[in-house]
Amino acid sequence: MAYTFTEKKRIRKSFSTRSAADQVPNLLDIQKVSYKKLLQAEIEPLQRIDEGLQAAFKSVFPIESYNGAASLDFVSYTLGTPVFDVRECQQRGMVYSAPLFATLRLIIFDKSESGGAKILRDIKEQEVYMGEMPLMTENGTFVINGTERVIVSQLHRSPGVF
Questions:
Q1: Three-state DSSP class for residue 45
Q2: What are the helix (H) ranges across 85-127?
Q3: DSSP string over 47-75
Q4: How far apart, in Å, do the first and last CA atoms of the chain sit?
Q5: Which end of the chain, C or N, has fewer beta carbons within 10 A?
Q6: What DSSP element (H or E) covers 122?
Q7: Of 92, 79, 77, which is closest to residue 136 (Cα–Cα)?
């Protein structure tokens, strides 16, 4: 049925009764899951996949000396327990963080006079303190110097490209 122009203006639509709205996704969950993937704290050190901190360590190691007499290999990393909880860090003006330890293996070689073949002399394995790793709170924030901060990703606009 075709409506005239004036009839089209008179058609009323009621928006008072509406079907249920879609569920709003938990936007904080995206950052929380991403941070958990970065740390892989709940996963055993030997079971970790090459992602996040594990991938960062694997990309740097092994480090070999210039003459090839020594090699420093990455074995695993562990996160310690935080000294203070979130509330105490806020009250004391501290960073909510946990110590990060990496287990490294130093391999020392002797070079044979006849060829250049490496002969294993010594292997030392030690847990090394790498620094403090800021921890994410349940709210998806970080406590830095006693104040809660949120990571906000921003677009960087290149000049001339619009």
A1: helix
A2: 86-92
A3: G--SSTHHHHHHHH--EE-TTSSEEEEEE
A4: 46
A5: N
A6: strand 118-134
A7: 79
Q: Where are the domains of the chain?
A: 28-149
- Give the type of residue at 159: P
Helices marked H in the chain = 5-10, 27-39, 53-60, 86-92
The model's pLDDT over 103-129, given as tens digits with 9 standing for 90+, comes to: 999 999 988 777 677 888 999 999 999
Of 63, 59, 86, whose CA–CA distance to 146 is shortest? 86
Which tokens go with 23? 């569920």
Q: What gap in Å lies between CA 146 and CA 3, rounded to an integer?
A: 66
Compute the distance between CA of residue 135 and CA of residue 77 in angstroms, rounded to an integer.
16
User: Is the bond preceding 99 in cis, omega lying within 30 degrees of 0?
Assistant: no
State pLDDT tens for residues 84-106: 999 999 999 999 999 999 999 99
Residues 96/137, Cβ–Cβ less than 8 Å: yes
Three-state DSSP class for residue 77: strand
Gyration radius of the chain's alpha carbons:
28
- 140 secondary structure, DSSP code: S
